[in-house]
Design goal:
The protein is α+β, with helices and mostly antiparallel strands. The chain is built from 60 helices and 42 strands.
């Protein structure tokens, strides 16, 4: 194709595909046709170059498809360190990835989220003429690209109602049917190839018994007949409309006629081999050179689409549901890929499409008599369709020819034929006799084929053969004339649908059939075309095509000879070139000859038998003619005249003995009489050969008669008829114009209705408009003025109420045709006017329409708008079609006339439909906008000067916003789609890639953002998908907008700026990528959100993506991933299979998990059914049903969309920060709430690694510039969110993200140092956020054995918290985060002193680590342990409370949890201590704030009850109040509430001494508030409490509130308890056996899991670890007693439960002792003289009652006592007990009964010898025998002194007892006295001095 010389840059000249293809049409073109203007028009129509408007269907130069990178999101499949490098390798990056190769470095986008031109904004170097200042690179890619990754401009255009689609003419289309080449590979005879052989091959339809093509002639010559001049075509190309099993190749062989008496043809049919002698061969060859006549010899049928025979040429033998047939040799691999609509695009290899196959023709049949083609096609009686028999009247046997004919058959692809060489003449159709045709006369009985026929023709021509095909050599014994030329056979289409004639053809095919004679003859026929009948001796016309391609046109041709028969049959085909203008004298002359077939002295000479004549006008009345003619014996001059015919003498008495057939293929001569009449009247109109009145009347009759021509007949001559009618409209009078216009409307309406196949735009009419119509090539005036005028007149007549008939509805339905015709006429005039003076490379200036024409167009446009309005209200489809036609009319005019004139038409349109209209009308407006805004120059209209107003853009934005406020959801979605598609068209357009272009586009669309901000309720009323569509466009606009325009929009007011950032917050919410399968901590998609929504694959991406995936999923394809070094991304290849077998893939894995068929995918219906049965939504099921590669593609797009959106938002925030820091914009500086919510949204959502790399430099700048504002109490919530998410990032698997989280925490610490001069407030804030985070962190995980261990999340969090305080890695972390090394030491804006302290940071890190460790310890217990082991549970809760002790609220929360646990275990003392601790925390906070309700002394009183309060300090926590936490909740009422709870619990635990002290703290509150009722209750409670205390102390049995046991753990299975000792506090009724059983139940399962056994040591002896067995775990349980004395370790006295004391300190214990008896011989027990005792004192880390049930032993001391010391201690113990009873205070209270009972009990055990022999035993052991000699005098003296004191105390006790007793106890007292006296007497034996004392 070449540029048309007069079209500038708009039109392209396309040489007519059929002009000049062969020399046969030169005679037609050279004829003088001036007397016949219609012939001039016809010839011009078939030979003139086509003129195509290149801008009619839009101009779009697409950039390369963006290649996206895999984004690294945190998830369960995130690799720790190597994910980024592996991602780069997958994308084609090899080698180590540096920072420069990463998607983002140093907070800037380098390389982009996706490669190519999309990586960052263009700089000044890219656009040297740019007037915009050089801008920094973008952080990420454009969000629009991943949102619409499969943007297809054609698909977007096709979504508009009434969209125009180009129709490529069949001559230029590569899909116009099937083409098959046939080449003679070899011909072998058993007798040898000794004479020339000739043959024909044609396509034949067995069922219809019709030839489908003309004959291809070939010959096979022996070497003796070959020479260089015999350049004969050897290859034929046949064309088929569609394959069919009934289509076959008819092969017929012929040879030189057999000589009478010579060698008969039987030598070729004999079964036995025949060996010809040299003489016989020479005889045959001489005869062949002598005689030129031939005779038929053999025939055969070759089924073309039989896989058994030909391998299924064209693939008909393949399954019928195959969309594309495979190659000739079976199936060929078709590699395909998906286009942007999801359709499969074939990428076939040439060798896989065009593969030749060698086919041996089935048996060649030899017959005795001649035959016709109809005789061949009768099925064999066996029923086998492939076996055909010869239908002979006499049933003669067919003898097979002993020969092999081998053909090379090949299906040709589109690459094998250049489009400009393809020749099609379109459709030739008519009925047997047209209704308007004249009678054929009685002398000619004709018969034509019924139905419609079409013909597709190829002229004989030469074309270079495909070099890629194989050249097959001839077989042995044969020699072929192999040539390079090709013969393109004419195709005779038999289809019912005609086509316009597009090729210049004027042919007549003649087929002589048979002649009936009265005697046998050797007959043949000669054919010639004569111009007249004057003299038969004149030479005929050279109008007959030769059989040899190298020969020129012939004057004569002759048939075969049917020898020695009365009824010779012929199967010859004669091709006749008809004259341009047929006259009545043109005729065909058939001459019949008889020839003798024997050689005498010379070659035989033919003898004329007769003549037959066929007038051409008669033969041209129908397309196909079957008839008979009489044979005249002799012809006279003027034999065509009727008077001469009567004088002719005919054979067989004038019977019609000659049967023949003809087929007309002419695009110059119509068979329809009305069309011929119209052509004649057109000639008269042009030549003005008739009087004016008669001419007008006859013209009107001929024009009106066209309305009655059948559509099939009219379609053949559609284009020339339309041109002629347009000529009449242009230069005819008003009456003729109206008639021609009405006739034209009628023609195109009928053509549209009968041949459109349901399409809105008939393809033949479209082809006429797009290619054939050239407005008479500039030879006449343009047609648009006349066409506009006549149409306007008709429209105005209708508007005025005149009756215009049904033609007006027809012209409205076909308005698109006339409007496009008008535009092309204008455009052609524009090109012809300016192209000659236009400098190269410049665009055509607009066409200047005169006022009258534009007024006519405006009035016509207004009338059509009125029709749209009126018919649209009725809901008629015609209104929608007309609306689209008007839109395209304006679209086309924008490229032709002055744009402002088009804007007047557009303004007229919107003045008709203004504001919010009805749904139907509003949809019309959207369609109209979609059409006109799709124009190539939409961006540049009216000019590139920013001061000029882009009318269409402003109108578009206004109408879109009005639509978003419409009530119809479909219209809202459509409006959003229009905006997205327009921006995609700009972004993907190669012409608008410079920075200036993108800036200009952004400025044009930026007012839309203002409209949204002005009416935010309209935006909020939209659905989520619609919001996404709008927001992605807003972000795209902001991306390329200059900073000045953006800052100017922020300068208006604070409220508007806040609304702006509200839009950005919506972006964060709607475009967040939630990775399926990850947990909530990592930004996962919640389970209840997965799979919800409509049936779509993705709710985040464009609807076009869902359409793309839907189309792709309909194909049953196997996707192969090919990653090559040259391709930056994966490519998918889809082998083509049947579309009916479309399947879907399972989501679980690339390999199906179906148990029955592991590799068999399931259908969509099955996928949905499975999803519904599983309780999941259809949306997720659809996504899971995708092929893994498509699903990977979808995830890739969603990831990149989220990443690009977030990075774009970050870029906007950075610009806002810079503008706000310079005070250039209006904002709220007290809170900076415009961006704080955005920053929180960034941190709180799942983000890819490139985002985090870009975020933290911005984060650092934010706190550097606005640290004072952000750290204020007004921003507590923001700081808390930031801290929470930074800690959350510290849990991520990706180490790069964790490092940046550590840097972010260090930035917070730096800011706290600068603005708070310390970390107290930040410590509280981080502790609070860490507490909230731990509820989301999975701190434990299961081992393989089912036990719990610390999870990786917890370990990563602790690692991150430790790294905060590691000074040695701080510099590396900053560098990796893209920050300067001095970031932490840099002074903030306005700062003057650096106070960073690593010690303080280390302290902060430790406090946070303790909280994590406490949480881990609590979680590691597990539910089973927490249920069974109350001690570990209490310690876990206590550990949490202690870890959060610097935050009062959290400390109180965990203490209350612990209190509930103790209450559940009935550990009331411990529960009460928790309540006291809570009250103490509140009280300390109140005292620290200076409240005078309580003072420090009250706090000290509480510390006596709960000593653990001593180490707690809440001062800084109370001062560091955080929003939602802190002293605001620490009130006096809270303290009173918890004190009352403690009092209640102490009462339940019978610790009444503590209750009294607690009530004493409550009473001052009630006094201060004058709550007398509460005071009364408190005093009443005090009364009962003191009474209970008195009762406890007066009890004869000493009161004990609890029992205490020492427990030691030894064994690896105890874990952290191994080697530790604890003191347990149990209820007072728990004995040693009980606790042994309880602890055994707790720890035995754990020991068994460790494959060890548990052994409990029952005694209190010392345990030596080296003596223990490794396979056994030991527990030592010992009862211990609490002690308060400081010198208890040195005291020899025995410990036993003493009486209750009244001091509170007596109930708080932190020391315990136990005695262990032993002997030196290893026995635990022995006599008094051998019994040793070891006393052990234990110190615990706290005091009992405590917050837990057990306390760790922190100190242990022991002392051993000898037997004598042991004895002395025993005596002193008894003495002290008796003395203590005598000193009891109850003596003064007069409580004699209780005192007497106690005294009697002790005396009885001391002085009664029969029950207390201990004293006598001691004396006997140490004062007699061998022990007395071993003891020192001092020891004996101490023993005697102890005995003397004991007896003295007993004597005193007896006197008191005597005073207290009554008469009833006298006898008992007497017994005690007697016992005392007896004891004294016994002791005197050992200690004589004792008598002197008593």
């Amino acid at each position: 194709m070449g540029e048309i010389a007069l079209s500038g840059q708009r039109f392209r000249r396309i040489p007519h595909p059929y002009s000049g293809q062969s020399a046969d049409v030169e005679s037609l073109l050279s004829d003088n046709v001036e007397p016949w203007p219609h012939l001039t028009e016809l010839l011009q129509n078939y030979t003139a170059d086509w003129v195509k408007d290149e801008s009619k269907y839009g101009h779009y130069e697409s950039v390369p498809t963006p290649v996206f990178e895999n984004q690294i999101f945190e998830g369960p499949d995130t690799d720790v360190e190597t994910e980024l490098r592996l991602s780069n390798i997958r994308l084609g990056r090899y080698g180590d990835a540096t920072d420069d190769e990463d998607p983002t470095t140093s907070g800037r986008y380098s390389g982009g989220l996706f490669s190519g031109r999309f990586s960052g904004r263009s700089t000044g170097s890219d656009a040297p003429d740019s007037t915009v200042t050089k801008a920094s690179k973008h952080y990420g890619g454009a969000p629009l690209l991943p949102y619409e990754p499969v943007f297809n401009w054609l698909a977007a255009r096709a979504s508009v109602y009434g969209q125009r689609t180009p129709e490529i003419p069949t001559a230029l289309s590569s899909s116009g049917g099937l083409k098959i080449s046939v080449k003679i590979a070899s011909l072998n005879f058993q007798a040898g190839l000794v004479e020339p052989w000739y043959g024909t091959i044609c396509l034949y339809h067995r069922e219809k018994r019709e030839k489908l093509s003309e004959d291809f002639h070939f010959r096979c010559l022996p070497p003796e007949f070959q020479d260089e001049a015999s350049n004969y075509p050897r290859k034929a190309v046949f064309s088929l409309e569609a394959p069919s099993p009934a289509i076959c190749l008819l092969v017929q062989l012929e040879k030189h006629v057999t000589e009478e008496g010579g060698i008969t043809p039987s030598i070729y049919t004999r079964k036995e081999p025949v060996h010809l002698t040299e003489r016989d061969k020479q005889k045959l060859q001489v005869w062949a050179k002598m005689i030129p006549f031939r005779e038929p010899f053999a025939w055969s049928i070759l089924p073309l689409f039989d896989a058994i025979v030909t391998g299924g040429v064209g693939g008909f033998s393949s399954p019928t549901n195959s969309p594309l047939p495979p190659g000739v040799l079976g199936s060929a691999l078709m590699e395909t890929s998906l286009d942007s609509d999801g359709r499969l695009i074939a990428d076939s290899k040439p060798e896989s499409v065009s593969v030749p196959v060698l086919v041996d023709v089935p048996t060649l049949h030899r017959v005795k008599e001649n035959y016709t083609e109809e005789m061949l096609l009768v099925e064999h009686p066996s029923g086998q369709s492939s076996m055909l028999s010869f239908q002979e009247p006499k049933r003669k046997v067919q003898k097979p020819v002993k020969a092999t004919l081998r053909l090379e058959i090949e299906r040709l692809g589109s690459d094998d034929h250049e489009t400009d060489c393809i020749s099609e003449c379109g459709s030739f159709n008519n009925y047997s006799f047209d209704a308007d045709s004249h009678s054929l006369g009685a002398s000619f009985s004709g018969r034509s084929a019924q139905g419609l026929e079409s013909t597709k023709t190829f002229h004989n021509g030469h074309q270079k053969s495909n070099s890629g095909h194989r050249d097959l050599q001839a077989g042995i014994g044969s020699s072929l004339d192999l040539r390079r030329s090709e013969f393109r056979a004419v195709e005779f289409r038999l289809g019912p649908k005609p086509e316009p004639l597009s090729q210049l053809l004027h042919l007549l095919y003649v087929y002589p059939q048979s002649v009936t004679l009265n005697r046998k003859r050797n007959l043949f026929i000669r054919l010639e075309l004569r111009v007249d009948d004057g003299d038969i001796r004149k030479p005929p016309l050279e109008a007959l095509y030769p059989r040899d391609a190298d020969s020129s046109m012939q004057k004569y041709v002759h048939t075969q000879i049917d020898a020695n028969t009365k009824t010779p049959h012929f199967h010859d085909e004669f091709k006749v070139q008809l004259p341009t203008n047929l006259s009545p004298d043109h005729h065909l002359l058939f001459t019949f000859f008889h020839v003798e077939l024997q050689t005498k002295l010379e070659a035989p000479k033919p003898v004329v038998v007769g003549y037959a004549v066929l007038p051409l006008l008669f033969a041209s009345q129908v397309i196909r003619l079957d008839g008979t003619l009489p044979i005249a014996k002799e012809l006279y001059p003027n034999y065509l005249k009727d008077n001469v015919k009567d004088r002719l003498e005919y054979l067989d008495d004038g019977k019609t003995v000659f049967k023949l057939r003809s087929r007309l293929c002419s695009s110059l001569y119509p068979v329809n009489e009305r069309i011929r009449d119209f052509f004649s009247e057109y000639d008269r109109h042009i030549l003005r050969t008739s009087p004016w009145g008669n001419e007008l009347m006859e013209n009107l009759q001929a024009v009106n008669a066209l309305k009655n021509v059948e559509a099939s007949a009219m379609l053949q001559f559609l284009q020339p008829c339309l041109n002629m009618l347009l000529r009449m409209i242009g230069d005819g009078g008003e009456t003729l114009q109206v008639a021609a216009f009405r006739s034209m409307v009628n023609i195109i309406t009928r053509v549209q209705g009968e041949t459109s196949d349901g399409d809105e735009r008939n393809r033949y009419l479209v082809q006429y408009l797009d290619y054939a119509f050239d407005d008479f090539g500039g030879r006449h005036d343009p047609v648009y003025p006349g066409l506009c005028s006549v149409w306007r007149s008709l429209a105005r007549s209708k508007a005025k109420g005149y009756r215009v008939g049904p033609v007006y509805d027809d012209v409205l339905s076909m308005a698109w045709f006339f409007l496009e015709l008008i535009v092309k006429s204008m455009a052609l005039e524009q090109s012809r006017t300016y192209s000659e003076t236009l400098p190269p490379g410049e665009e055509l200036p607009p066409l200047q329409l005169n006022d009258e024409v534009f007024k006519s167009i405006g009035q016509l446009y207004d009338c059509l708008l009125t029709e749209v309005q009126e018919r649209g209200k009725k809901g008629l489809t015609l209104a929608n079609k007309l609306n689209s036609s008007l839109g395209f009319f304006c679209f086309d005019l924008l490229s032709v006339i002055e744009p402002r004139q088009v804007f007047e038409l557009v303004a007229l349109y919107f003045s008709k439909f203004c504001g919010v209209c009805e749904t139907t009308i509003h949809e019309y407006k959207l369609n109209f906008l979609s059409i006109i805004c799709d124009h190539d120059l939409f961006v540049e209209m009216p000019g590139r000067d920013p001061t000029e107003r882009n009318y269409l853009a402003s109108m578009l934005m206004q109408e879109l916003f009005i639509t978003w406020d419409h009530e119809d959801p479909a219209l809202k979605a459509k409006a959003c789609r229009i905006l997205v598609q327009l921006l995609c068209k700009h972004e993907y357009d190669l012409r608008y890639q410079s920075l200036d272009d993108k800036l200009y586009i952004a400025q044009r669309y930026f007012p839309l953002v203002g409209l949204i901000l002005d009416e935010m309720p309209v935006f909020y009323a939209l659905s989520s998908s619609e919001k996404r569509e709008i927001l992605v466009c807003v972000l795209h606009i902001l991306r390329y907008l200059d900073d000045g325009s953006l800052v100017k929009s922020w300068q208006q007011n604070i409220a508007r700026t806040r609304l702006f950032f509200k839009l950005l917050e919506e972006c964060q919410e709607l475009f967040e990528y939630k990775k399926a399968g990850a947990d909530g901590l990592m930004g996962a998609m919640p389970v209840n959100e997965q799979g919800k929504g409509t049936l779509c694959y993705s709710e985040k991406l464009s609807p076009a993506v869902n359409h793309f995936l839907s189309e792709a999923s309909r194909q049953d394809v196997r996707i192969l991933l090919q990653v090559t070094k040259s391709s930056p991304g994966p490519q998918w290849i889809f082998p083509q299979v049947s579309p009916d077998a479309s399947t879907f893939w399972k989501r679980v894995s690339p390999v199906s998990n179906s148990p029955s068929s592991p590799n068999q995918p399931h259908s969509l219906r099955e996928a949905l059914a499975q999803a519904q049965s599983a309780g999941r939504g259809a949306g997720m099921a659809l996504k899971e049903s995708l092929h893994p590669m498509l699903r990977q593609k979808l995830d890739l797009w969603e990831e990149n969309l989220s990443a690009s959106v977030m990075l774009q938002l970050l870029e906007i925030v950075a610009k806002f920060m810079d503008a706000a820091s310079s005070q250039a914009i209006a904002t709220d500086y007290t809170k900076l709430d415009c961006i704080t919510s955005i920053i929180s949204g960034f941190l709180g959502r799942s983000q890819p690694l490139p985002f985090w790399k870009a975020f933290f430099p911005v984060f650092n700048n934010l706190f550097s510039q606005y640290g004072a504002t952000l750290m204020s109490r007004d921003n507590d919530r923001f700081l808390k969110q930031v801290a929470f998410h930074l800690l959350r990032l510290g849990v991520f698997r990706n180490e790069s993200i964790r490092k940046r989280a550590v840097v972010g925490l260090q930035i917070l610490i730096r800011t706290a140092f600068h603005y708070f001069q310390g970390l107290s407030r930040l410590r509280v804030l981080l502790t609070i956020t860490l507490s909230e985070l731990m509820s989301d962190v999975q701190v434990t995980q299961h081992r393989m054995d089912g036990s719990l261990e610390e999870s990786g999340e917890s370990q990563r969090l602790r690692r991150s918290l430790r790294q905060i305080a590691q000074e040695n890695i701080s510099t590396d972390l900053l560098r990796e985060s893209g920050l300067p090394e001095g970031t932490l030491s840099a002074l903030p804006d306005g700062g003057c002193e650096q106070i960073w302290s690593w010690a303080g940071v280390h302290e902060l890190s430790n406090s946070l680590l303790k909280a994590v460790e406490a949480a881990v310890g609590h979680a590691l217990l597990g539910p089973e342990v927490m249920t069974a082991d109350k001690y570990a549970t209490a310690e876990a809760y206590y550990g949490l409370a202690r870890a959060y002790s610097n935050v009062p609220d959290l400390h109180i929360m965990w203490l209350l949890y612990l209190c509930e646990v103790h209450q559940g275990n009935q550990s009331y003392a411990e529960a009460a201590q928790c309540a006291v601790s809570v009250a103490g925390v509140v009280m300390q906070a109140i005292v620290s704030k200076g409240d005078h309700m309580w003072g420090k002394e009250h706090v000290e009183a509480l510390r006596k009850i709960c000593p653990m309060l001593t180490g707690a300090s809440f001062g800084e926590a109370a001062s560091a109040e955080i929003e939602g936490y802190g002293s605001s909740k620490l009130t006096v009422e809270s303290a009173v509430k918890y004190l009352q709870l403690a009092n209640k619990l102490f009462v339940q635990g019978e610790l009444f001494h503590f209750c009294a002290e607690i009530l004493e703290l409550i009473i001052p509150v009630h006094k201060a508030r004058r709550a007398y009722g509460q005071l009364s209750k408190c005093h009443t409670s005090l009364t009962s409490i003191y009474e209970a205390i008195v009762e406890q102390e007066s009890s004869p049995i000493p009161f004990s509130d609890a029992t205490y046991y020492r427990v030691g753990f030894y064994g690896e299975s105890f874990g952290s308890l191994n080697g530790k000792e604890y003191v347990y506090r149990e209820a007072r009724d728990v004995r040693l056996g009980d606790i042994m059983r309880n602890l055994g139940n707790i720890y035995e399962p754990r020991v068994i899991e460790g494959k060890q056994s548990l052994h409990i040591i029952p005694d209190s002896r010392q345990v030596k670890p080296e003596d223990l067995h490794a396979e056994i775990c030991y527990m030592q349980i010992t009862s211990v007693e609490p002690v308060t004395e400081d010198d208890i370790l040195e005291s020899r006295r025995d410990r036993h439960s003493s009486k209750s004391v009244t001091t509170v300190s007596a109930r708080v214990f932190n020391r315990f002792l136990y005695d262990t008896p032993f002997t030196k011989n290893g026995k635990s027990q022995g006599g008094l003289e051998d019994q040793w005792k070891r006393r052990t004192v234990l110190w615990t880390e706290g005091s009992f009652p405590a917050l837990v049930n057990r306390l760790t032993v922190v100190k242990s001391e022991s002392r051993e006592f000898s037997p004598i010391e042991n004895a002395i201690g025993m005596i002193e113990t008894r003495t002290a007990a008796l003395a203590g009873e005598l000193d009891d205070n109850r003596l003064n209270e007069g409580d004699h009964p209780s005192r007497l009972q106690s005294l009697q009990r002790i005396l009885q055990g001391s002085v009664a010898v029969q029950v207390n022999s201990g004293v006598l035993g001691v004396c006997a052991a140490f004062f007699s025998g061998e022990p007395s000699t071993r003891l020192s005098a001092q020891d004996l003296q101490e023993l005697m002194a102890a005995l003397m004191e004991f007896m003295a105390v007993c004597k005193k006790a007896l006197r008191i007892h005597a005073r207290l007793i009554t008469e009833e106890d006298q006898e008992f007292h007497s017994q005690l006295v007697i016992g005392f006296q007896s004891l004294t007497a016994e002791l005197s034996h050992f200690i004589p001095a004792i008598l002197s004392g008593f």
